[in-house]
Every structure is written in structure tokens, then in C-alpha cells.
Amino acid sequence: MLKKLKECEPDLIFITGDLINSDENEISPMLDLVKKLREIAPIYFSLGNHEIEYEKRTGIDLTEKLEKAGAKVLEEKFVDVTVKGQKFRIGGLYTVYIPEDYEVHEWGNAKEQAEFLKEMEDTERYKILLSHIPNTWMYYDTAATFDLNLIFTGHAHGGQAILPFVGGLYAPDMGYFPGRLSGVYEKGHTQVILSRGLGSNTEVIPRFNNIPEIVEVELK
Question: Which three-class secondary structure state does DSSP give residue 45?
Fold first, then answer.
């Protein structure tokens, strides 16, 4: 994986969560990987459900450890960067959905999340959001009210097992046969890039006919 990433010669590396499983006891491989990735390009990291569940289970602050390893962790935060003369705003947000009434739900305070997005969108820079779970950006109309240019997301594992002429068999929070589960989507004025990712959830079903992927995006 490191060899392939070096060949891409990236200006930025985005990780949208679930770099570990929530029941892990040893996180040094994750931190060692981040250190090696940082030698290739700056890393921006948004937390996935497995990192959040790991923190709740162990009480360990993964954000602190990831940032010491060299990643910039973004959770309801954004940073302004300039790359090759181009100005970007990069933010991160973990949520499953933002309801229209901005109620508090099990994935956070929707009002606070919406306020963060409104602050993030208030710029002339090109706006990129890292957000682990795709549901908000693909299935809920509320997302279209925020002025974001590009969203990177994951979580769906590409459907775990991909069946010919059918597609993905199962995706977390989406159930069986949920439809298209990777690629580029258009949601209003926003592009959403959904990755199949590199790993697997063997508790449900092994990964089958579902080639792991590193997503390489060229912005023009």
C-alpha cells in the first residue's frame, strides 16, 4: 500500500476513519502507518465509528495519538491550506444524518454540527469535507442546504460481497442490497466520493469480489 501511495505522488492524504477495528488491543500498527504516510504527504484524518467505539471502550484518546504520529485529526474542525497556489478549506465531521429540525441524536448534537458546517462554508476557498458515514450526504436532503464542494466518505465497505449484475450485498446502516456503494455521486452542487476502502467486516460476511481500493483524485 505504501509503495502504491508513493507512486501516486499525492499532495494530500485523506483518511476517513476505521483505520482500526473497535475491539483492537494493539494500535501501534495504525500509528506506525500514519508516521510512514506522513513522510509522503500531509495527512488529514476524520474519525470513523470504530475509532469512536474504541475510545469509548478503552478511554484512550486516539486523536492525541494520531496527531503525535503526524496526522491532523478533524472532528467538527476545519483548516485552511494552500497547495500549489490553490486555496482549500478542509473539514471533518462524524454524523449519520442531520435532521431538518436539528434535533440531538445518538450521533451527536445536530444543531452544533449544522453550526459547524455553516461556519465551514463561509469562505471563498474550495471546501472539502471528510465524513466517515455517507448516509448524510447521499440520502438526506438536509445536506444539500450546505455549500460544500467535495466530500470524501467510506463506511459502506463497497457492499462487502459484490454480486454480478446485483452489486453490493450488504452495507453497515444500509442493510442488504443497498445499491451503488462506491464511486462519485452528484448531490446537488456537491460531489461525493465514496470509497470501497481497504478492509473488511468478517463478522458479517467476508469481502468477496470487492477489490480494495486507494482512491486517487486529481482536482483541476
Answer: strand
Query: What would the DSSP string read from start to end of 142-190?
Result: GGGGS--SEEEE--SGGGSBEETTTEESEETTTEES----SEEEEETTE
Beta bridge partners of 92: 77, 130
**pLDDT tens string 148-161:** 999 999 888 877 78
Cα separation, 185 vs 13, in Å, equals 20
Calpha distance 127→138 (Å, rounded): 17
45: left (phi over 0), alpha (psi -120 to 50) or beta: beta
Give bridge partners of residue 15 from the DSSP assignment: 45
Q: Which CATH architecture has domain 74-211?
A: 2-Layer Sandwich (3.30)
Mean pLDDT of the chain: 89
Among 205, 208, 159, CA closest to 183: 159
* Range list for CATH 3.30.750 in the chain: 74-211
Q: Which residue has the cell 463561509?
A: 122
